[in-house]
UniProtKB/TrEMBL annotation:
Function: Involved in the assembly of lipopolysaccharide (LPS). Required for the translocation of LPS from the inner membrane to the outer membrane. May form a bridge between the inner membrane and the outer membrane, via interactions with LptC and LptD, thereby facilitating LPS transfer across the periplasm.
Signal peptide positions on this chain: 1-31
Protein name, per record: Lipopolysaccharide export system protein LptA
Annotated ranges, domain Organic solvent tolerance-like N-terminal: 41-152
Length: 185
């Protein structure tokens, strides 16, 4: 019995589904590290600067680019709290979208009513009808947090009758427990 089968049998079926979702989605998400050394470009129809509050507001057809990262929204509010690089960008839209090419060359797409991107922490939080998709696997939840550095994703449901939903393709499920080095465990 290989390692993953032993792990899955040692936890309840409910938790196994959660663990499997986390392993498949988070293990595959390895952010393109060169993106974070790139400048951040913001393009919009209008911009308002509130210099005393260290706040910039961009409106109408807003696009943010940093390397392969692309965020699109109706409105983006950027707040800097102190040091350079501590900016927090909050994108609002119906939906706001997030796109990135990972180190393995595969794209990640996400959308929600709000996308909060904390540059220094490299943390993306998607709220309001959130969806994160890589290849044909997809996670839906009221709140999706993705820590780019730790490669950790957490999806949550805020409402009583709402649940986090994950979809996997059969091909991805079959290859999940196969070793990548060609050796049997």
């Amino acid at each position: 019995m290989n390692y993953w089968n032993r792990v899955m049998r040692s936890i309840s079926m409910k938790n196994a589904n959660l663990a499997l979702a986390a392993l498949l989605c988070c293990g595959a998400l390895q952010a393109k590290q060169s993106d974070f050394s790139e400048p951040v470009y913001v393009d919009a129809v209008t911009q308002t600067a509130e210099l005393q509050d260290n706040r910039l507001t961009f409106n109408q057809d807003v696009t943010i680019n940093q390397g392969t990262i692309k965020i699109k929204a109706d409105k983006v509010v950027v707040v800097r709290s102190g040091e350079k690089g501590s900016e927090v960008m909050t994108a609002y839209g119906k939906p706001a979208t997030f796109f990135q090419i990972l180190d393995n060359g595969k794209p990640v797409n996400a959308h929600g009513d709000t996308i909060r991107y904390e540059l220094k922490k490299r943390l993306v939080t998607i709220t309001g009808k959130g969806q994160l998709k890589q290849e044909d696997s997809q996670i839906n939840g009221d709140v999706i947090r993705y820590d780019i550095v730790k490669q950790k994703m957490v999806a949550e449901s805020n409402q009583q009758n709402s649940r986090v939903k994950t979809v996997f393709l059969p091909d991805q499920m079959e290859s999940f427990d196969k070793p990548t080095n060609g050796k049997k465990e």
